[in-house]
Amino acid sequence: MDFLLNHIEALIFCSPSPIKLSDIKSCLSEMFNADVPEEDIINAIHRLEEKYQAEEFSFQIYKSSGGFQFLTKPAYQASIGIMLKQQSKKRLSVSSMETLSIIAYKQPISKTELENIRGVNCDYAVQKLLDKGLVEILGKSETVGRPIMYGTSPKFMEYFGISDMKDLPTPKDFSEEVNTIGESPDNQ
């Protein structure tokens, strides 16, 4: 029965929301090509609940919303709260994302060019991107006034999970499909 227990544990673990007993049964029945008795599933879940109540685990199985899911134990709430707070500081605002995308596609680019594209002042967004290490100063332009030129940093690649700037989506990846409904085949 440990084989069944392991499959149930995996289903509960990977479910993004509480997984209902009926869903577990349905998955297992399809997996094993046979009906899995509900009583066996309930017994396996009870064994898992007992297993994860041990002090050595920082999480356990909770029953909520009519289903089962892994949640961390209340004793670890403080450290998780700190991590979530730190992660939220790492998120980018819409204006920062807009500014960063322009820099990524147009680099090297000056702040004046950025502001001409966005139509608003970009001082704050550029400073935040520099602070987060996603953008770096590439030098100065040879044009009048010698403005500072900005580009993306290696941390930008890591943040977005890309290994090369060629991995960025091209503008055609964002273009909408042409609607041909209602057109005669002659026009296509």
Write the topology of this structure:
Blueprint: H1 2-14, E1 19-20, H2 21-32, H3 38-52, E2 59-64, E3 67-72, H4 77-90, H5 94-106, E4 109-110, H6 111-118, H7 123-131, E5 135-140, E6 148-152, H8 154-160, H9 171-174
Antiparallel strand pairs: 1-3, 2-3, 4-6, 5-6
In words, what does this structure look like?
The protein has 188 residues and is α+β, with helices and mostly antiparallel strands. It has 2 domains: 2-73, Winged helix-like DNA-binding domain superfamily/Winged helix DNA-binding domain (Arc Repressor Mutant, subunit A, Orthogonal Bundle); 94-172, Arc Repressor Mutant, subunit A (Orthogonal Bundle), CATH 1.10.10. Helix content is 51%, strand content 14%. It has 9 helices and 6 strands; from the N terminus they run H-E-H-H-E-E-H-H-E-H-H-E-E-H-H. Strands 1-3-2 form a 3-stranded antiparallel sheet. A 3-stranded antiparallel sheet has the order 4-6-5. Strand 2 (59-64) and strand 3 (67-72) form a beta hairpin. Helix 1 (2-14) packs across helix 3 and helix 5 crosses helix 7 (123-131). The relative contact order is 0.08.
CATH homologous superfamily grouping of the largest domain? Winged helix-like DNA-binding domain superfamily/Winged helix DNA-binding domain
How do the SSEs run, as a string of H and E? HEHHEEHHEHHEEHH
Q: CA-to-CA gap between the ends? A: 61 Å
Helix content: 40-55%
Principal-axes geometry comes out as: elongated
Radius of gyration using CA atoms only:
26 Å
Number of helices: 9
Number of strands: 6
The level 1 CATH classification of the largest domain is Mainly Alpha
Number of domains: 2
